[in-house]
């Protein structure tokens, strides 16, 4: 038996290292959180995006294939703040021991008045870089819980990503500083940029509400036109989700110009395929149009 | 209804014609000329007092507003202060402060802005050798 012990120890070590090398499967309902998980997890994670770049998370519905992806996930990341209204129903599809983390629920919410729905939580927390820094720490801690063996890698990767976010925030502050504070007023397709507005001193007049599913009424459009005229708002920023008839009516009635397209609900294609690219595109588009 | 069919038809036609007016206004695109682009008047310039207090001297600094340097220099003592004209809207202003200390180690600098009858507003930057940040007033 004594002669077998070293052999068994070697076999056990080999088996353990094989297990440790197995990447942690992370399933994400947010394009932003998928990037954060990939940046923090590095080669130790396998990230599956259920909500893919360019998809509207407000209108996303899980497919049977998505449920299968959840079955063997170790970590499920959601934006939270009621963005994924279907999540509680899906919880049973996740594998045993899978952690479901509603990241946005762990940070303060802006409350927005949604007319008939009263005050609701604004789910678009990622437009504040400070919130993405918090999200990075939340994802790091969740990955460490899921895979303690790679604690050092997750910590180092998170620190590197946090340093990038600090530099990005400095860039945004410098870019926004080119715009007088009394010119920081804009119209957006839907009410997705209030966290950005709060952090950098903007006032946002949204055409649609928090969700892209809500079409504005004729009275809301008329009220918005009156506000744009009285406040002298110079530009309207679009997403591909907005009915173009509404934006063209507003530009015709007010003289405000189309300022460009913004990435509102997460990552997209082109410049907006990374968080840094998305932020730089949005900020540059806004500042150049309002100058 | 005892009127002749011709009278009834004429009444019905009249009602339909009356309905056409509001229907047309609902369904026809508005033909008003395009509004002119909104214009905002820039905020008037007011005299602002700027003061930099630094934990270390000497220091070299530059204060920028809207991308233009409004005050720069080297100070052998603290505080350094000046008056400059700045357009300050009710929403406030952003000032970029870049400061360099010749002495090594951590240091801090506080930039205070006072204008009109407003209370002084102070913002602080920290750094080791140099610091740079956009400071928001108020």
Q: Biggest sheet of chain B, in brief?
A: 4 strands, antiparallel
Strands of the widest sheet of chain A, in order across it, are 2-1-3-4
Order of helices and strands of chain B: HEEEEEEEE
| CATH domain fold name of the domain at 45-137 in chain B | Lipoxygenase-1
Rounded to an integer in angstroms, the radius of gyration calculated over CA atoms of chain B is: 33 Å
| SS-based class of chain A | alpha/beta
- Per CATH, the architecture of the domain at 45-137 in chain B is Sandwich
What is the end-to-end distance of chain B? 76 Å
Could you list the spans of chain B in which at least 5 consecutive residues all have pLDDT below 50?
Answer: 26-34
Count of beta strands of chain B: 8
Largest sheet of chain A: 4 strands, parallel
Topology as H/E string of chain A? HEHEHEHEEEHHEHEHEHEH
**CATH C-level name of the domain at 45-137 in chain B:** Mainly Beta
Number of strands of chain A: 10
Mean of all residue-level pLDDT scores of chain A: 89
Describe the protein in words.
The complex is a heterodimer of chains A (291) and B (138). In chain A, the strands form 3 sheets. A 4-stranded parallel β-sheet of chain A has the order 2-1-3-4, covered by helices on one side. Chain A is α/β, with parallel strands linked by helices. In chain A, strand 3, helix 4 and strand 4 (99-102) form a beta-alpha-beta unit. Chain A has helices at 4-21, 31-41, 64-71, 87-90, 129-146, 151-176, 194-200, 218-231, 244-254, 275-290, and strands at 24-28, 45-49, 75-78, 99-102, 111-113, 119-121, 185-188, 203-206, 235-238, 257-261. Chain B is of the alpha+beta class. Chain B has a domain at 45-137: Lipoxygenase-1 (Sandwich). Chain B is built from 1 helix and 8 strands, in the order αββββββββ. Chain B starts with a helix and ends with a strand. Chain A binds chain B through residues 170, 173-174, 176-184, 201, 228-229, 231-234, 249, 252-257, and chain B through 30, 32, 34-40, 42-43, 64, 66-67, 87, 89-96, 132-134, 136.
């Amino acid at each position: 038996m004594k002669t077998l012990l070293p052999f068994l120890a070697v076999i056990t070590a080999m088996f353990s290292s094989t297990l440790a090398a197995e990447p942690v499967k992370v399933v994400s309902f947010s394009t932003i959180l998928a990037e954060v998980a990939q940046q923090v997890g590095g080669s130790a994670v396998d990230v599956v995006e259920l909500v893919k770049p360019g998809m509207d998370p407000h209108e996303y519905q899980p497919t049977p294939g998505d449920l299968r992806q959840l079955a063997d996930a170790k970590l499920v990341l959601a934006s939270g703040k009621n963005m994924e209204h279907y999540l509680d129903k899906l919880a049973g599809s996740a594998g045993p021991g899978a952690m479901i983390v509603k990241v946005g629920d762990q940070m303060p919410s802006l409350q927005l008045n949604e007319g008939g729905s009263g005050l609701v939580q604004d789910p678009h927390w990622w437009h504040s870089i400070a919130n993405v820094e918090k999200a990075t720490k939340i994802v790091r801690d969740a990955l460490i819980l899921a895979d303690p063996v790679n604690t050092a890698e997750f910590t180092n990767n998170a620190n590197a990503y946090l340093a990038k976010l600090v530099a990005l925030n400095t860039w945004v502050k410098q870019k926004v500083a080119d715009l007088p504070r009394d010119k920081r007023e804009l119209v957006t397709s839907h009410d997705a940029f209030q966290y950005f507005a709060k952090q950098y001193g903007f006032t946002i007049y949204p055409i649609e509400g928090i969700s892209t599913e809500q079409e504005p009424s004729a009275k809301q459009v008329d009220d918005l036109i009156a506000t744009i005229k009285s406040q002298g708002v110079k530009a309207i920023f679009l997403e591909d989700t907005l009915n173009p008839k509404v934006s063209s009516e507003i530009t015709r009635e007010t003289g405000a110009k189309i300022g460009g397209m913004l990435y509102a609900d997460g990552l997209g294609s082109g410049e907006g395929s990374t968080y840094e690219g998305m932020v730089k595109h949005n900020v540059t588009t806004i500042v150049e149009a309002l100058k | 209804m005892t009127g002749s069919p011709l009278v009834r038809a004429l009444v019905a036609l009249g009602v339909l014609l009356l309905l056409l007016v509001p229907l047309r206004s609902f369904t026809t695109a508005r033909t008003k000329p395009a509004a002119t682009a909104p214009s905002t008047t820039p905020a008037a310039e007011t005299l602002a007092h700027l003061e930099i207090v630094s934990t270390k001297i000497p220091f070299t600094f530059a204060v920028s507003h809207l991308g233009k340097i409004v005050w720069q220099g080297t100070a052998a003592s603290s505080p350094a202060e000046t008056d400059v004209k700045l357009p300050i809207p009710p929403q406030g202003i952003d000032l970029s402060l870049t400061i360099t200390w010749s002495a090594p180690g951590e240091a801090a600098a506080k930039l205070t802005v006072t204008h009109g009858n407003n209370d002084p507003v102070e913002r602080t930057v920290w750094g080791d050798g140099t610091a740079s940040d956009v400071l928001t007033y108020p």
